[in-house]
């Protein structure tokens, strides 16, 4: 199995395809397996790297505390070890937060950001949000991963025809190490990129499910603050858009990445003329 030592931790990874590197970052409680619909679509044109983040999947699960900055540094060090001087980032939920953090910490490395159902901060401004956060933590600590997974999957995949996705999700969730999951969850709380968003200069694709946890208006608002960003709504989709609407997600990602490549080619041609 392919593992790489990063910051004294063993991270599981897979590399498929050839071309410019595209690193895919999964969400909280997930793993590289949840990109199974995206890798085949991207690998014909790009070198696709999936990994299990610290505390997840087959990677090391050290004691906490964790932070988004720590997880971002893991990804940056992994990229450097592979010799990737620049790369595209695709991240969902927690993975999107890590992608934003990398765009702040290592702007010279990032060719583009594709952010799926995520944002540049998770600030518990209200008592309602705080209660929801700590309710999730309490349920996890008292009832364990399988029951927590069942509750989460009912929200992620509510339709009768999504039964298989629900069952698969529960089984995957049950394999999570509870302590590592809680440490990763705590890393999200009150995290923010802590810079003006217009300081992020790379092209950004903001993808949002129309039934995501946070409203489209939230993504539209921060999308407008970014220097070079486009918002795309995934129809009939919840928080797990790459799984519940893979065709729409894949098309949006390919359109965005291909437009980036075309624009860069045109710019290069103009300079050489």
List the helices and strands and how they pair.
Elements: E1 3-6, E2 9-16, E3 20-25, H1 38-42, E4 46-51, H2 68-81, E5 87-92, H3 94-105, E6 110-116, E7 121-122, H4 127-156, H5 163-174, H6 178-188, E8 191-192, E9 204-209, H7 216-225, E10 229-234, H8 241-244, H9 246-272
Parallel strand pairs: 3-4, 3-5, 5-6, 6-9, 9-10
Antiparallel strand pairs: 1-2, 2-4, 7-8
Question: Key features?
Answer:
273 residues, Rossmann fold, 19% strand, two-stranded antiparallel ribbon, alpha/beta
Give an overview in words.
The chain has 273 residues and is α/β, with parallel strands linked by helices. It has a single domain (3-125, 191-272), classed as 3-Layer(aba) Sandwich (Rossmann fold). 46% of the residues lie in helices and 19% in strands. The protein is built from nine helices and ten strands. It has helices at residues 38-42, 68-81, 94-105, 127-156, 163-174, 178-188, 216-225, 241-244, 246-272; strands spanning 3-6, 9-16, 20-25, 46-51, 87-92, 110-116, 121-122, 191-192, 204-209, 229-234. The strands form two sheets. It has an eight-stranded mixed beta sheet with strand order 1-2-4-3-5-6-9-10, sandwiched between helices. The protein has a two-stranded antiparallel ribbon with strand order 7-8. Helix 7 links the parallel strand 9 (204-209) and strand 10 (229-234). It is globular and about 60 Å long. The model has no long low-confidence stretch (mean pLDDT 94). GO terms for molecular function: hydrolase activity. Pfam families: Abhydrolase_1.
């Amino acid at each position: 199995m392919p593992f790489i030592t990063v910051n004294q931790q063993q991270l599981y990874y897979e590399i498929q395809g050839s071309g410019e590197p595209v690193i895919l970052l999964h969400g909280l409680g997930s793993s590289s397996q949840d990109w199974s619909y995206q890798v085949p679509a991207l690998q014909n044109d790009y070198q696709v790297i999936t990994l299990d983040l610290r505390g997840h999947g087959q990677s090391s699960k050290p004691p906490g505390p964790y932070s988004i900055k720590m997880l971002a540094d893991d990804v940056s060090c992994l990229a450097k070890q592979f010799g990737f001087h620049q790369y595209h980032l695709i991240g969902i939920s927690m993975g999107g937060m890590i992608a934003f953090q990398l765009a702040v910490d290592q702007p010279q490395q990032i060719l583009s950001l594709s952010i799926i159902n995520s944002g540049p901060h998770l600030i518990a401004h209200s008592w309602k949000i705080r209660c929801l956060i700590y309710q999730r933590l309490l349920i996890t600590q008292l009832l364990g991963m399988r029951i927590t997974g069942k509750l989460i999957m009912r929200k992620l995949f509510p339709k009768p025809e999504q039964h298989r996705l629900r069952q698969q999700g529960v089984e995957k969730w049950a394999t999570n190490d509870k302590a590592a999951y809680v440490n990763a969850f705590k890393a999200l709380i009150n995290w923010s990129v802590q810079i003006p968003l217009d300081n992020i200069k790379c092209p950004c694709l903001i993808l949002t499910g129309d039934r995501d946890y946070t409203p489209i208006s939230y993504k539209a608002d921060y999308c407008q603050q970014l220097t070079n960003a486009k918002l795309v709504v995934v129809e009939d989709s919840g928080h797990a858009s790459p799984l519940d609407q893979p065709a729409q997600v894949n098309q949006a990602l390919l359109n965005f990445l291909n437009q980036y490549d075309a624009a860069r080619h045109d710019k290069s041609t103009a300079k050489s003329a």
